[in-house]
Amino acid sequence: MAGTKNQLPFWLWANQLGQFDKNSSTIQNFSINAFHGQQIGGSDFSYQVGLDLDLLLADENDIRFTQLFGSMSWRFLQLQIGAFPEEEVYAGLSTTNGNLSASRNARPHPKIRAGFNRYVPVFTDWFFINGFYEEGLLNDDRYVKDTHLHRGNLFFRFGQPKSLQVTVGIEHFVMWGGTHPVLGEFPGWEDYFNYLTASAGGNNVIDKEQLNAMGNSYGVYQIEFSKAWDKLNATLYISHPYEDHSGMEFVNYSDNLIGLHLAFHKQQAHLKNIVFEYFHTKNQSGAYLIGEAPDENGRGRGIDDYFNHGLYLSGATYNKMAMVSPLFAPVLIADGTSRGFENTRFAGFHLGADGLLSETFAWKALLTYSNNIGRHNGQGGTTISPSRKQLSALGQVSWQPLSKKISISTSVAADRGSVYDNGVNTTRLGAMISFNYYFPN
Length: 441
Known about the structure:
The chain is mainly beta. It is about 5% helix and about 50% strand. It has four helices and 25 strands. The protein has a 19-stranded antiparallel beta sheet that branches. A two-stranded antiparallel ribbon has the order 11-12. A hairpin with a 5-residue loop joins strand 7 and strand 8. The longest helix is centred in the middle third of the chain and has 5 residues, at about 190-195. The two termini are about 30 Å apart. It comes from Draconibacterium orientale.
């Protein structure tokens, strides 16, 4: 892959599990992928293992495991250990895999996850639950070393696909522990439940957290409406972010990712999937911070600054890439470590589609536009003015013969905007060609 102006265009590096550094003008990547899953005898137990080993020749050469994991399942329960990505949804056409707080943009970090492996019916065939509990370690080069990352979610699903299915849930993340370069080591497991409940710290923590919530908490509400017909599946999804009580109580009601996914069932459809998304994160509960602790039971309002944090300065990044939507950008870098996001307030739209040109040729196209205004500056204004606009596009054609032992794809991409060039409007072009060989089982 290659890009002009010493960078790759957005859609050549975004949502690629952190494999490709956008600041490289050319990249050659040799990857070995191996995944295996199997039922254990005639039991209810099964296991899965996987690895993705990448050798990159770029401006900075690297060899690494992008994925390395194992999992064990018993009926509807599952335990996963290692570095594994989020399951791809909406045909891989969403800007952020349908979830503002958890994308497939950054390299997976090591973690342990226990929960359900599917939606489980509860007493009836119209009510289901799903969820998991997870603890991970952000072991990259970041501002607060060895930060722990907790994640938990719980989802409820009502109805059947042929009528109408409604899914609602909440995702909760907490960065906790670690060693701050100035303040030293933060409290660890002894304060674990204070971190999880966003409780104020006691005398054993730094002044900033004695009144404020311990750790860095954030998350999303997720809502999905889906219906299936004979020739079409339609899904409307909403992802609503929160940083504190104001977001959880919908003071920032206008900030959402809203998407529509249409999947067509025809075997050789020229158009198989189409995704349209509208995103807006400009409100962030208001431009002023009011109701600070100890007033109003410590529940502040305003200047949420999504996925950034005053102590955990690297924010929701891993290996200098956004773990959240890649539209939160660019990642600020200082002294070789990430310092969160320069721009968290933006609005725009995205269109993605794929289909078949013939029995062996497939196509995919992505188009994204955003208007970006930076962050609240604490004085009623914004940190970027005038706004920075960004337009990114990608077109891809893939060929896979009926034997399915090989596949070849070519992509062209283009950017026009000023988000990644310090306010200077820049046109950037790029291209990629990839060859895959699939070994027989």
